[in-house]
Amino acid sequence: MLSRRNWVVALVSLLLVASLAGCTSGIAVPDRAIAVDVNTALEAQNKVANLMTAGEVQWSEAEFSSLLSVLLDQNSGENNPVDAVLVWFEPGNKVIAQVSLIDGVLPPTLGGDALNLSGVVSVEGGAVKLDLDGASAGGLGIDAAFLAPVNAQINAALAGLGLGVPVTVETDSGSVTVKLGM
After folding, report:
1. For residue 69, what are the contacts with CB-CB under 8 A and spacing of at least 6?
2. CA 121 to CA 175: how far, in whole Å?
3. Is there a contact between 104 and 85 (Cβ–Cβ < 8 Å)?
4. Cα distance between residue 98 and residue 86, in whole Å
5. What pTM value is reported for the model?
6. Rounded to whole angstroms, how far apart are CA atoms 176 and 62?
7. For a designed S-S bond to 181, which of 109, 117, 121, 166 qualifies (C-beta 3.0 to 4.6 A apart)?
8. Residue 82 CB neighbours (<10 A)
């Protein structure tokens, strides 16, 4: 016959195993250095005009990361927890992002102040779409099934861009190309 203590130990063990079942290993980011600065962000912003006139734009990882980081900083309040966003592009429309947070946002037990995301970018119905396939904080990963609400918010924001024309997105190692269909 099991004692009360054995039931508690069994229950706690079951809960621990169930909670760890959703965890995966951390997302590894490429070892290519990306420098984020305002001048590079301005160069990337100037390329948007090229998208509208020539129907195509290609951004490097530094340009895209700088533009995203500077726009996030400018359009957020003083309580913005994000320090920078670094984005790496791989062939096959694979995207890896590292969101660097200011000190103290994540608990020290996670071993870092960055969130890593990975996914595949595509186009559906003329709107850019991101399908996340993994995320991690420190070395602790999060299963893709738990990312559905985050993924839905990202895709709602991307759909809200309202490009209204057919778009293609292609990634290669170190760059992304966006083309508008005319």
Report:
1. 36, 41, 82, 84, 85
2. 13
3. no
4. 5
5. 0.78
6. 11
7. 166
8. 16
Question: pLDDT in tens for each of the 182 residues of the chain?
Answer: 444 444 444 434 433 344 444 555 678 889 999 999 999 999 998 988 777 788 888 999 999 999 888 888 887 777 778 888 899 999 999 999 998 888 877 776 666 788 889 999 988 877 788 888 888 887 788 876 788 888 888 878 777 665 556 688 999 999 999 888 75
In the chain the beta strands, taken as DSSP E runs, fall at 56-60, 82-90, 94-101, 114-124, 127-137, 140-142, 167-172, 175-180
Pick from 145, 32, 140: which is nearest to 87 by CA? 32
Q: Within 10 Å of residue 13's Cβ, how many Cβ atoms?
A: 10
Q: What angle do CA 19, 117, 102 make, to 5 degrees?
A: 95
The dihedral region occupied by 24, where left means phi > 0, alpha psi between -120 and 50, and beta the remainder, is beta
Residue among 78, 74, 82 at smallest CA distance from 99: 82
